[in-house]
Amino acid sequence: MAGRLGFYDRGRTPYFASRMEPRLCYCLYVPREYDGQGGEAFDLVVLVHGTARSAETYRNFFEDFAERERAIILAPLFPAGMSAPGELSSYKLMRDGGIAYDLVLLDMVAEVAERYRLRSDRFLLHGFSGGGHFAHRFLYIHPERLMGVSIGAPGIVTLLDPDHDFWVGVRNFEAIFGTALDIEAMRRVPVQMVIGGEDKETWEIRLTPQDSWWMPGAESLAEANRLQRMAALRESLESCGIAVRHDIVPGAGHDGRAMVSVVQHWFSTVLASSRKG
Description:
Layout: E1 11-12, E2 16-17, E3 25-30, E4 43-48, H1 55-61, H2 63-69, E5 71-77, E6 95-96, E7 99-100, H3 101-115, E8 123-128, H4 130-141, E9 146-152, H5 173-177, H6 183-187, E10 191-196, H7 226-239, E11 245-249, H8 260-276
Parallel strand pairs: 4-5, 4-8, 8-9, 9-10, 10-11
Antiparallel strand pairs: 1-3, 2-3, 3-5, 6-7
């Protein structure tokens, strides 16, 4: 249970190995005024890195936010090459190579809850690019754990399409994840989509039948850029009654740093609403 803390348990913490899967790890930012012997409970914000694995950088961007909003920041690190030498994307699909990345993240959250006082078992989640892959698919699997989710410019999106298998759609979702889609629970989660207005490059996300990601139904998004794929994802969610705030940052390309202030502002509004309730 939460209690006395050491020097490295506040501020920018070291990386800690996951107790569930020690090949994966996480770092934290804990506000300096957090008192291990006190009574104040803090909110939790989870930031999921993109393909470049800049977990610590994203954590550092949110230091001032954490201090201001009385929140703890958790930034997981999902290394490349987990399911095959040189692979970059296994965590984006949530379950790959024998690793359930969503469940490992939830156990990381449980570890944090055992060491620090958290206000809720629900948390805010943001991911950009590869992290945006993770964020919207995590929403599908675990909506009951989310206070809000911010989906940043994923290159390849999963639509709520009952006519195609995962990853394109969700026809076999329950067979893969062991749980049925809970659309009603998803409707209760505030959702933000955020992307740069100039995020139009397709070199990294173009799909062809020769790609490992290719599957039936992929052709519908094959030539679309991230802006177009985000629009398709928004339309898919809204068609199921899931409200979406869609922020497009003028002049920005595929740069997660340009999204930070917009995400933080939205997170602040979600936290304020949650605390009133």
